[in-house]
Amino acid sequence: MEIFYWIVFGGLAAVVATMELSKNNKDRINTSSAFNSFKNNYLLVYSLMMAGDWLQGPYVYYLYTTYGFGKGDIGQLFIAGFGSSMLFGTIVGSLADKHGRKRASVTYCITYILSCITKHSPEYRVLMVGRILGGIATSLLFSAFESWLVAEHNKRGFEQQWLSITFSKAIFLGNGLVAILAGLFGNLLVGTLALGPVAPFDAASIFLAIGMAVIISTWTENYGDPSESKDLITQFKGAAVAIASDEKIALLGAIQSLFEGSMYTFVFLWTPALSPNDEDIPHGFIFATFMLSSMLGSSLASRLLSQATVKVESYMQIVFVISSASLLLPVITSFLVAPSQEKGGSIKFAGCIQLIGFCVFEACVGLFWPSIMKMRSQYIPEEARSTIMNFFRIPLNVFVCIVLYNVDAFPIAVMFGMCSAFLFLASMLQKRLAGVAERSRQDKVRELEAEPLNI
Questions:
Q1: What is the Cα gyration radius of the chain?
Q2: Residue 321 or residue 160, greater confidence
Q3: Of these four, 199, 308, 350, 368, which has the most CB atoms within 10 Å of its CB?
Q4: How buried is residue 214: exposed, middle or buried, by Cβ count under 10 Å (0-12/13-18/19+)?
Q5: How far is it, in rounded angstroms, from Cα 394 to Cα 88?
Q6: Residue 29: is its pLDDT beyond 50?
Q7: Is the pLDDT of residue 229 over 50?
Q8: Torsion 131-135-141-142 (CA) sign
């Protein structure tokens, strides 16, 4: 493996280790033992859930190719997954609010385990069912667990600022360390032990089953609005009204869709961007490097969120601008660096520049997750939290499906330019959100100051 990859990986590892070891009391928030126990329980469950998810990711496409399916058939399977998340996401989100987030979290485990089981079949229809189940599970993963956490945190009377600790640690572990370990473990199963491409899915089922046992035995149930008088249509209308009537929620949804849409598009584009002429690149090692970059971002987020004087709405404007610039690099290099005609070989100079930019983008992803979780906890009403969060994913899934369907229609540079533009638009909307939130805070202060005069 080229020394370049080790330099980038080692440099990132050194920075992450330095940041974590150099944290002082100013970067830490004093908490209670009861909260620490609660936090550690959630982090254990979240890490197990993410292990079940990360183990599958690198091998889905590869598994389909071993069954003899071509790019078109595989693309339809992926579209089915995102389409399923779009169509069923709001329904399962509403059911989670009404019938319980703990129950929804258990449903996630069962649904994803069933999806893993379908991977044993080479039948296209069975694999399609698995992708649909996987799409439903994804909607639950990104709504039910966070909704349960926020509601349970508030129900137990913990300080609001402590929530940011759980968010940043969850991303540091679940989207960073666990992702790296899952990649290495999957490589061990498929490569070293030669157990076949289905082995990671079987391992994922085991982790999901263990997590489900922890949820059943340790979590208590909480709800959004358990009122039986509200059917799904009424809940949908309530969520839509909340988004339409509160500019902060609408802006937050648009920001999330723009960033995550660009992020998922990046997932499909980084491989051809780094190896346009079939260069031999270490995909697994680069993936681990990206996850290390994400850990760097989440470590920085934990420092920022621990400062009471630092507003998440303000620094996220800078994060979106930096992420926009990082995904503009492939466009810039396509103009400034002459394309190589040499087939195969090692990564080229343009690829090295882009890899550094992609690491910067992944660091922004690490900053994004705990920060958007913090803002969602502040602005989304508790009674319809899961429903609204899945509403946010509708434009995201539409966007990704369109990109997947037309991935061969545009040059890679154009696709990256589009993502960069979306991220810059997200920074503009974030600036608007910061202004609206500040005015809302000032209005509340004036109302509190005026209350004694009305007595």
A1: 22
A2: 321
A3: 368
A4: middle
A5: 10
A6: yes
A7: no
A8: positive
Kindly tell me the burial class for residue 448, based on how many C-beta atoms sit within 10 Å of its own C-beta (0-12, 13-18, 19 or more).
exposed
Run of H or E including 87 = helix 71-99
What average pLDDT does this structure show over 186-204?
Answer: 90
Residue 418 CB burial class (10 angstroms; 0-12, 13-18, ≥19): middle
CA distances from 238 to 233, 250, 332, 375 (A): 9, 14, 45, 20
Q: How far apart are CA 183 and CA 189, in angstroms?
A: 10
Length of the chain: 455
Tell me which residue has tokens 């609204």: 388
- Helix %, strand %, coil % for the chain, to 5? 80, 0, 20
Written as six digits, the tokens of 443 are 């209005």
Nearest CA among 321, 306, 317, 325 for reference residue 435: 317
The structure tokens listed for 387 are 């429903």
CA atoms of 96 and 113, how far apart (whole Å): 19
Residue 368 tokens, joined: 């994004």
Helix (H, G, I), strand (E, B) or coil at 404: helix
* Cα–Cα distances in angstroms (integers) from residue 284 to residues 53, 178, 183, 185, 428, in the given order: 16, 14, 7, 11, 35
Handedness of CA 380, 382, 386, 387 (dihedral sign): negative
Query: Can you tell me which residue has the tokens 């399609």?
Result: 128
